[in-house]
Design a protein that fits this description.
This protein is α+β, with helices and mostly antiparallel strands. Helix content is 45%, strand content 34%. The protein starts with a helix and ends with a helix.
Length: 158
């Protein structure tokens, strides 16, 4: 196991626990690629901006992480975030499996895996339960998240 890369993952999640998006973004290579069930295909600064947006808007937030593993090229971890979803005021407990690729001591690829339907049931309530598994609803969730990120980026650069 690469101790340096395991420490990089640990530092990333400790920064997330503190909601320190700048420290999180500092763990990423400038040309990082990030994807999860909602934010698909973020590149470079977009990935850091996503964490900046999420950390700045987080309410009643807590995070735990376990199972950090890393070798010279790849790593993984499991993490759980609990927070209030601001659009509905509902509590979400999201369990995520993360995969990383490293280059030059930084994260070059980060992929988070979680069940979007499970998330939508918690975040959206009955609508998420009944419709959250449908591809058009999941596409709408992604579109709304992307619009939120674009708005955040425009506002932060203004």
């Amino acid at each position: 196991m690469s101790a340096a890369n395991a420490e990089l993952i640990t530092n990333f999640y400790r920064a997330f626990q503190r909601q320190d998006a700048e420290a999180m973004a500092a763990c990423y290579a400038p040309d990082v690629q990030f994807s999860d069930a909602v934010f698909v295909g973020l590149k470079g600064r977009e990935a850091g901006d996503m964490w900046r947006m999420l950390c700045s808007r987080a309410k009643d937030f807590s995070l735990s992480f376990t199972a950090v593993q890393a070798d010279e090229q790849h790593g993984s971890a499991r993490w759980t975030a609990q927070y209030c979803f601001s659009a509905t005021g509902r509590t979400v407990v999201n369990e995520i499996r993360a995969e990383f690729v490293f280059k030059d001591g930084l994260i070059i690829e980060h992929r988070d895996h979680f069940d979007l339907w499970r998330w939508s049931r918690q975040a959206l309530g009955l609508k998420g339960l009944l419709l959250g598994w449908l591809p058009p609803v999941q596409a709408a969730i992604r579109r709304q998240a992307r619009q939120g990120l674009s708005g955040f980026q425009a506002q932060s650069r203004a």
